[in-house]
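User: Just a sanity check before I run the rest of the batch. Below are the structure tokens for the first item. I only need the designed sequence back.
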């Protein structure tokens, strides 16, 4: 029992010494902290995560908001260009669609007026020639129109008369040709039997009998077509008369509908477009006449019936580029085949091909020239588009429309280039003698200066 208090006394003394040492170290650490400089307010560490007050956050961590970029700048450049071109193409396509709908609604009037323009381009030189020889405008216009309409009426009457006169003989010859073709098929290397030919003929008769209602309705529609054709002919005749008599004033009135800023360019493009249309109509008439004469002489010496009506058909179909020559030539070959046999058909085909080759490589480049030269692909596409939109009439007017558009666009492009050069600022110190006279563009015609008489629409 005497040893326990001594052990406890030593333990208490040791704890007392340790407590003194800890107190001394705390005092030393406090003195060192008092002697050190206080940190700046900006460098002091915030008591995060214990102090989240709004005032402390705004002073210690100010909120930085970056400005968002422009949406147009965020879109890639290529996509922006495609979008800009896309909506413009959509607007243009919508405009063309609306225009085509309007034209389809008044198709008869549009075709009649375009036909009047073509006839006017053909007859206007005669009016100008009579005016130069002292004939007043009214008598010159009446004489030219009467002469032109009489010639076209005589051509139509002659074709109808020839067809009606030879229809009976032609039907007999067609029957003989069909029998001859049947015999040739029976003896040909195609191994066609009589039973197969009879089945084909039976199917044809059944098809005709089954579609009697459609044929009857087509006949009734044919009456409507005849009435519309007569209406279109009257509209074209009246339009031709007014264009021949008063074409220049009609053109000047049309210029007033154009905005003033674009009026000089349009005033210069109009006479050039009219010259292009006149050259196309004259050249096409000459080429078609040569084709009709030479092909007609060839099939006449081959004893093909109705050689003259076929030549007239060749002349009329020549106004449809590419397609018309193929259709009229095929018609002549078929008539020769069913009436005169295989040899006459082959010889007719040779005549047609030779004349068309001469036309394509000699006549058209020499007669039409570069003024109305259109790429063959553009001709094919325009004829196909015109035929789909407005039938035969659309196919006839498609190529001259493309030729005139090509001329107008080329002139307006050159005119805008000249206008840009004219408006460009001159170099400092330049004198009027610094530029050559050839570099100065020709001033465009204005409304007060109408086109010359020989280049105006009438």
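Assistant: Here's the designed sequence for the first item:
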């Amino acid at each position: 029992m005497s040893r326990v208090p001594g052990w406890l006394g030593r333990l208490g003394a040791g704890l007392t010494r340790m407590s003194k040492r800890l107190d001394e170290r705390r005092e030393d650490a406090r003195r060192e902290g008092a002697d050190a400089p206080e940190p700046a307010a900006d460098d002091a560490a915030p008591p995060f995560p214990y102090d989240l007050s709004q005032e402390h956050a705004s002073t210690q961590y100010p909120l930085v908001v970056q400005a968002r970029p422009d949406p147009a700048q965020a879109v890639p450049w290529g996509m922006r260009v495609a979008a800009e071109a896309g909506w413009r193409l959509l607007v243009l396509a919508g405009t063309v669609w609306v225009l085509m709908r309007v034209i389809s609604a008044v198709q008869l009037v549009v075709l009649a007026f375009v036909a009047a323009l073509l006839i006017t381009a053909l007859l206007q030189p005669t009016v100008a020639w009579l005016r130069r020889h002292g004939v007043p405008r009214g008598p010159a216009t009446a004489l030219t129109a009467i002469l032109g309409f009489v010639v076209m009426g005589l051509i139509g009457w002659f074709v109808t008369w020839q067809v009606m006169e030879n229809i009976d003989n032609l039907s007999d010859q067609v029957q003989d040709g069909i029998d001859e073709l049947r015999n040739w098929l029976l003896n040909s290397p195609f191994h066609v039997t009589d039973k197969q030919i009879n089945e084909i003929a039976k199917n044809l008769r059944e098809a005709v009998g089954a579609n009697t209602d459609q044929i009857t309705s087509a006949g009734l529609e044919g009456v409507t077509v005849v009435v519309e054709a007569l209406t279109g002919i009257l509209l074209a005749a009246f339009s031709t008369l007014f264009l021949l008599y008063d074409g220049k004033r009609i053109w000047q009135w049309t210029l007033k509908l154009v905005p003033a800023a674009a009026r000089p360019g349009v005033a210069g493009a109009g006479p050039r477009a009219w010259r292009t249309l006149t050259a196309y109509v004259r050249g096409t008439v000459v080429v078609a006449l040569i084709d009709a004469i030479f092909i007609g002489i060839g099939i006449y010496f081959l004893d093909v019936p109705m050689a003259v009506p076929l030549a007239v058909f060749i002349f009329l179909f020549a106004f449809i580029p590419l397609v018309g020559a193929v259709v009229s030539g095929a018609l002549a070959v078929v008539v020769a085949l069913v009436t005169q046999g295989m040899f006459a058909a082959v010889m007719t085909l040779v005549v047609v091909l030779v004349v068309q080759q001469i036309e394509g490589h000699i006549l058209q480049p020499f007669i039409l020239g570069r003024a109305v030269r259109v790429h063959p692909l553009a001709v094919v596409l325009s004829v196909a588009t015109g035929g789909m939109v407005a039938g035969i009439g659309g196919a006839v007017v498609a190529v001259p429309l493309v030729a005139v558009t090509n001329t107008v666009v080329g002139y307006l492009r050159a005119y805008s280039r000249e206008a840009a050069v004219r408006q460009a600022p001159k170099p400092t110190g330049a004198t009027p003698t610094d530029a050559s006279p050839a570099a100065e563009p020709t001033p465009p015609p204005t409304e007060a200066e109408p086109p010359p008489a020989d280049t105006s629409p009438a």
